[in-house]
Amino acid sequence: MSLRIAVSILASAAFGAAVGCYVGRLQILFAAVKMPLFLLGTLLLSFPAMHLFALVAAPRLRMADTFDLALGSVATTARGLGALSPVVAFLSLTSPIPSYKTYLFLVLVLVGSIALSGTISLRQLRRDMERLDLGPAAPRLFAAWLAIYGFAGSQVAWLLRPWVGSSYAVRGYFSIYRNLEGNFYEAVFRAAIALVS
Q1: Structural contact between residues 164 and 107, judged by C-beta atoms closer than 8 angstroms
Q2: 47, pLDDT greater than 70
Q3: pLDDT number for residue 117
Q4: Is 34 within 8 Å of 160 (Cβ atoms)?
């Protein structure tokens, strides 16, 4: 378990640092700290609900089993992000500053990288659940966990923003009050629309 946590921290920190390369300086450190906080913090926030669903859908699944499955999924996501970090670092380092279109592009690269790594992680989670032979409860449990972690993760990401940008020079760089306005889904939709218009 400690190896999975270490892998999650190191690989996701590498990805965060790659994202922070767009601005450089302290943004590299901020993003490198925030990415493991995002993945593991989301796990800690969503784990009680995930285990509650496990108790209802698959009562023989122990708390340790639930945590092992969830942590394995987070570690797989982190490894995927770590593997993508050289590409993201290249894009971050070679993108023009300041450019609103580049900023939007990098935000969508960040979201796409997490979505791709998360998809790979979900395939691994499904295989791990099949190995435990949870029977007909497995698809329902899988869907519930996906919804819980996905919703919690998107909102944790929203609260930890900004991920890309030079806002640390701006007053109120990390303002929890500002971050409580709007939501992740609205922001991604607006970024995609603004990028193509």
Answers
A1: yes
A2: yes
A3: 97
A4: yes
Choose between 162 and 152: higher pLDDT.
152
Is the pLDDT reported for residue 175 higher than 80?
A: no
- The tokens describing 194, both together, are 């603004």
Write out the two tokens for 168.
């640390």
Residue carrying the six token digits 């993003």: 31
67: Cβ contacts below 8 Å, ≥ 6 apart: 47, 51
pLDDT on residue 102: 85
Each residue of 102-131: b (16+ CB within 10 Å) or e?
bbbbbbbbbbebbeebbebbbebbeeebee
CA distances from 188 to 108, 112, 158, 159, 177 (A): 7, 11, 10, 14, 20
- pLDDT greater than 90 at residue 144: yes
Q: Is the dihedral of CA 30, 32, 35, 37 positive or negative?
A: negative
Count of Cβ atoms closer than 10 Å to residue 144 Cβ: 18
Task: Dig out the tokens for 32 from the structure.
Answer: 């490198």
Amino acid at 34: K
pTM for the complete prediction?
0.84
Length of the chain equals: 197
Do 74 and 8 meet the contact criterion of CB atoms below 8 Å apart?
Answer: yes
